[in-house]
């Protein structure tokens, strides 16, 4: 006998235990996408982080911390070409094993519904920023054709924002096959899209699924800054 | 078709909205609309429609069931056959019980004629006994004073519409007893056994905990527990039932029974336990709810506890809509619902405070408006006391009581050790409560919140819980604001109300007049009412004889948030004016006591003066010519003359200017006194006259009336009094002079409430 309407977890397919509390009784139930135990496996970034890349300081050994910067960012910032290119990155979750699975499922295996939960979570983070354009990191045509959707754009749209494709990408090999040095010295992989609106003096917020070395975001920021953007920040779901 | 979680909780909430609309339609409708508006963002439209339909259904149900319909005047002097369904209560020479007459539940009372009759009637095992009686049907008395106990409403909560006074008990015989009757007999015998084994100050506690039986409990203990917000411990509550069921469940498992068996056994035993526990609303609720949860647990899709709670709530409301007036019912559902809704808060934050502390705090907060609405005050230490006493009762005293009772049944020889232990603990608990309840400091009397404020309290409490759930204690400023705004409103609207009043309290035959100046500038009470007591034999004396001061005047004062009197004025020494003065002096701080400066006072008046001296109350002997003023309110004493002989004509007479009106309060002034008054003060004109001596024809003479020319007259007189007051010729005389007449016997309390110089009369009974 099924007396009550059940909800199921988008990730593990388990039953979501119903809960009625003050908020859900008087404001109506929130649509629950994940069960509590799956939700708890997301590890939120809390506490002190690197001022620029949002890496949790607790992950960095003492000798690699330089005031409020991590060693990585210090190196980026001490390079004349890359100084002040990416003003700041904010990330939501720690890139743990679970996060890797989630991103894999959503990105590579096309579990598009999972984006709803991620979008719901990242929305407040996006709202915190002031920006003129929310710009997803683009995929190359070939990759987009393979995958069917741009994960960064999907997150931004699912969170209820208008995204602007200011950039296009020149097809290269997958990032994940490259070393850090290769990534840093990459020739330009982004171009300003034809027919893009005026960028001069604008505030740009880049959106992507994951920040690993920051090279992708910095390359995108570099192109935008070169086109006259006043400030380029970024939000990502995970910080690798 | 599957339904959504919370449906029963939502339907129950619409019951509350329906009831509110029944009380105050616009307020109820606004609440419904805001509720639906909040929900419509996330709930599908058809569920909103369901809520509205359900709301309309409940509103209709309350309209049909609770509206005061003119009840047909019942027959008198009838011969009936009554069937006892419970044991009667014997109090002095009064026996009262709820009985069954032709399938209807009737509250009967019978005045016993002799001690032998009482002794005989006490030996009967009543349930199932059938008696033929002669008596009069009566309509239960309605509320006669603002905020007074409403007996008619109380009986409605038990589905009783009529009372009967029995003149004559004829023969009785044992009818066909039902299973329930036998259970009640076993219960009564068990109670008697506990009473036999334990001393009288301990037995009632055990009986209360085991059988939900509060008879025989010391008034003082009961008052102490109530004033500290602990009385729920002495009633059988949900906590109680869950402790019992859970321990029984595990005991059965321990003895090797299957879970299935344990469950079925509990399903069978719980209803029986409800009978043993006295079947009060809180017992029924707790048992039925546990029963629902247990019963439905068989299916994999279990009910949420809040749905089980809602389901039982709907069940009880459908069975008898008037149950919603029951204080215990209100509190037990309110607190349980709030705690269930707070499960997220408790789960998340129970580590900061231990969960029992948090539960006590949340329960305290949730019950505050209802406590204020019914008891007009709350205790600051109540929360702390609950934190200590709930575990004490749940985990020590209650289990001990159960063990004790089992021991009595199987090994009476072992009893002493446990009995002593239990006695020590209960005595300790009681001495702590009695000691703490004597600190008036902890009791905050705020008065009765008006309906709009009552709803506002709930509104802020819901938001408060919501904020706590969402932000825990981060938004301290907001939490303080939410907590104190309604209390500040209550202080401004009730305790320091800008409205003043002159209320002629219906104390039966007698006088008691409250003058309350705006902004708490002055509270004056002229006379206290009082019962004329007769000498009684010991067996006839009731444990708590009726005292209008205790039952009417004090609750009225408390409901207005009045915690002290500036002046208590005793016009003269008759019992119907000062009979309850001792009660008032004992229970309420008083600044000044005004008595007439007369000689040869009666003994009772002297006793009161002595008591006042003992309590360090300033006693002023007043006589004509004295006066006092408070702001623009003037009070002049026109009588008695210095050293008058104490009697009716030496009553204190007060001429007052209140709300721009001229008032004359005459006590029991009679012809001679009136003559003196108009001779001494030929210019005396008044707007409102308190008619002298309850409308007796010895007062309110024609020359007096034609001289002072009142526009309105109030007669403070008891319904069906033995003196025939008010006399018809007085009523005629007042009418001839085109004076508006208000009578407390017909109108109940008569109140003149005013704001600045504008005011109007209102009566409790139209």
Automatic annotation (TrEMBL), chain A:
Pfam families reported in the protein's UniProt record: Pribosyltran (PF00156)
Residue intervals of the Phosphoribosyltransferase domain: 183-239
Domain of life: Bacteria
CDD domains, per database record: PRTases_typeI
Family: Belongs to the ComF/GntX family.
PANTHER family tied to this protein: DNA UTILIZATION PROTEIN YHGH
UniProt protein name: ComF family protein
TrEMBL record, chain B:
Protein name: DNA internalization-related competence protein ComEC/Rec2
Domain Metallo-beta-lactamase as annotated: residue spans: 509-719
Membrane topology: Multi-pass membrane protein
GO CC entries: plasma membrane
Lineage, top ranks: Bacteria, Bacillati, Bacillota, Bacilli, Bacillales
UniProt keyword terms in alphabetical order: Cell membrane, Membrane, Transmembrane, Transmembrane helix
Listed transmembrane segments: 6-36, 48-66, 233-253, 265-283, 327-346, 352-376, 388-415, 451-468, 477-496
Pfam family, one: Competence
Species of origin: Perspicuibacillus lycopersici
PANTHER family with a match to the protein in the record: DNA INTERNALIZATION/COMPETENCE PROTEIN COMEC/REC2 (PTHR30619), RECOMBINATION PROTEIN 2 (PTHR30619:SF1)
Example of a GO biological process term: establishment of competence for transformation
Keyword Transcription attributed: no
Chief localization: membrane
Superkingdom, taxonomy of origin: Bacteria
Cell location: Cell membrane
């Amino acid at each position: 006998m099924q007396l009550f309407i059940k909800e199921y977890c988008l990730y593990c397919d388990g039953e979501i235990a119903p809960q009625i509390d003050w908020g859900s009784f008087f404001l109506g139930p929130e649509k629950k996408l994940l069960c509590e135990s799956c939700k708890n496996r997301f590890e939120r970034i809390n506490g002190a982080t690197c001022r620029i890349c949002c890496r949790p300081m607790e992950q960095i050994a003492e000798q690699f911390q330089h005031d409020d910067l991590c060693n990585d960012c210090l190196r980026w910032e001490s390079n004349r070409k890359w100084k002040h290119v990416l003003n700041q990155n904010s990330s939501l979750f720690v890139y743990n094993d679970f996060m890797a699975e989630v991103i894999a499922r959503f990105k590579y295996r096309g579990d598009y519904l999972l984006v709803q939960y991620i979008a719901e979570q990242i929305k407040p983070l996006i709202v915190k920023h002031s920006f003129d354009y929310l710009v997803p990191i683009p995929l190359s045509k070939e990759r987009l054709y393979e995958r069917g959707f741009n994960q960064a754009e999907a997150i931004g749209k699912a969170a209820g924002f208008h995204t602007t494709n200011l950039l296009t990408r020149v097809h290269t090999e997958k990032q994940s096959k490259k070393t850090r040095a290769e990534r840093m010295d990459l020739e330009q992989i982004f171009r300003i899209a034809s027919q893009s609106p005026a960028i001069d003096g604008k505030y740009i917020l880049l959106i992507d699924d994951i920040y690993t070395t920051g090279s992708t975001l910095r390359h995108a920021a570099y192109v935008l800054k070169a086109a006259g953007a006043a400030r380029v920040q970024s939000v990502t779901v995970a910080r690798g | 078709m599957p339904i959504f979680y919370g449906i029963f909780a939502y339907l129950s909430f619409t019951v509350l909205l329906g009831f509110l609309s029944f009380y105050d339609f616009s307020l109820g409708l606004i609440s419904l609309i805001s509720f639906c508006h909040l929900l419509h963002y996330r709930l599908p439209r058809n569920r909103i429609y369901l809520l509205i339909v359900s709301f309309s259904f409940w509103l209709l149900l309350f309209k049909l069931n609770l509206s005061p319909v003119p009840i047909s005047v019942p027959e008198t002097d009838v011969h009936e056959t009554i069937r006892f369904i419970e044991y009667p209560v014997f109090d002095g020479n009064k026996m009262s019980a709820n009985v069954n007459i032709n399938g209807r539940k009737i509250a009967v009372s019978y005045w016993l004629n002799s001690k032998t009759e009482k002794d005989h009637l006490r030996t009967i095992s009543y349930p199932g006994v059938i008696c033929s009686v002669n008596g009069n049907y009566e309509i239960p008395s309605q509320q006669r004073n603002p905020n007074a106990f409403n007996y008619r409403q109380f009986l409605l909560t038990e589905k009783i519409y009529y009372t009967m006074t029995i003149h004559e008990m004829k023969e009785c015989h044992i009818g066909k007893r039902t299973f329930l009757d036998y259970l009640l007999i076993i219960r009564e015998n068990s109670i008697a056994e506990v009473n036999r084994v334990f001393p009288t100050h301990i037995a009632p506690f055990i009986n209360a905990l085991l059988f939900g039986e509060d008879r025989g409990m010391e008034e003082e203990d009961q008052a102490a527990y109530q004033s500290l917000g602990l009385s729920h411990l002495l009633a059988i509550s949900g906590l109680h039932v869950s402790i019992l069921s859970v321990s029984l469940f595990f005991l059965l498992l321990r003895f090797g029974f299957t879970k299935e068996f344990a469950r079925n056994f509990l399903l069978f035993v719980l209803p029986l336990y409800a009978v043993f526990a006295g079947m009060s609303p809180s017992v029924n609720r707790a048992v039925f709810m546990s029963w629902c949860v247990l019963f439905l647990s068989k299916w994999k899709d279990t009910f949420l506890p809040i749905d089980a709670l809602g389901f039982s709530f709907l069940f009880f409301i459908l069975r008898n809509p008037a149950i919603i007036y029951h204080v215990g019912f209100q509190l037990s559902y309110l607190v349980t619902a709030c705690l269930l809704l707070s499960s997220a808060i408790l789960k998340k934050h129970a580590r900061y405070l231990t969960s029992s502390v948090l539960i006590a705090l949340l329960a305290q907060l949730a019950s505050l408006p209802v406590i204020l609405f019914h008891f007009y005050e709350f205790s600051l230490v109540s929360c702390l006391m609950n934190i200590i006493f709930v575990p004490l009762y749940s985990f020590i005293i209650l289990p001990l009581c159960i063990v004790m009772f089992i021991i009595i049944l199987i090994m009476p020889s072992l009893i002493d050790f446990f009995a002593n232990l239990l006695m020590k603990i209960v005595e300790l608990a009681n001495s702590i409560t009695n000691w703490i309840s004597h600190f008036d400091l902890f009791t905050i009397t705020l008065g009765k919140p008006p309906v709009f404020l009552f709803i506002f309290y709930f509104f802020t409490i819901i938001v408060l819980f919501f904020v706590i759930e969402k932000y825990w204690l981060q938004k301290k400023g907001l939490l303080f604001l939410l907590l104190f705004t309604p209390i500040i409103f209550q202080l401004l609207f009730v305790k320091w109300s800008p409205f003043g009043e002159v209320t002629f309290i219906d104390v039966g035959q007698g006088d008691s007049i409250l003058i309350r100046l705006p902004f708490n500038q002055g509270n004056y009470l002229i006379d206290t009412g009082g019962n004329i007591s007769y000498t009684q034999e010991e067996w006839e004396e009731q444990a708590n004889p009726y005292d209008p001061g205790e039952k009417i005047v004090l609750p009225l004062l408390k409901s207005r948030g009045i915690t002290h009197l500036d002046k208590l004025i005793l016009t003269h020494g008759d019992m119907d004016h000062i009979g309850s003065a001792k009660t008032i002096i004992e229970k309420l701080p008083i600044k000044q006591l005004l008595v007439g400066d007369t000689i040869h006072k009666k003994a009772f008046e002297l006793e009161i003066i002595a008591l006042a001296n003992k309590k360090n109350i300033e006693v002023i002997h007043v006589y004509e010519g004295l006066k006092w003023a408070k702001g623009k309110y003037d009070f002049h004493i026109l009588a008695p003359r210095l050293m008058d002989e104490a009697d009716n004509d030496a009553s204190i007479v007060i001429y007052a200017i209140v709300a721009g009106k001229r008032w004359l309060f005459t006590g029991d002034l009679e012809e001679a006194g009136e003559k003196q008054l108009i001779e001494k003060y030929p210019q005396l004109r008044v707007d409102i006259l308190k008619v002298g001596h309850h409308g007796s024809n010895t007062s309110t003479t024609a020359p007096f009336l034609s001289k002072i020319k009142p526009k309105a007259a109030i007669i403070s007189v008891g319904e069906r009094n033995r003196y025939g007051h008010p006399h018809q010729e007085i009523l005629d005389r007042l009418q001839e002079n085109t004076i508006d007449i208000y009578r407390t016997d017909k109108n109940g309390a008569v109140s003149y409430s005013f704001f600045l110089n504008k005011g109007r009369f209102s009566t409790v009974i139209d």
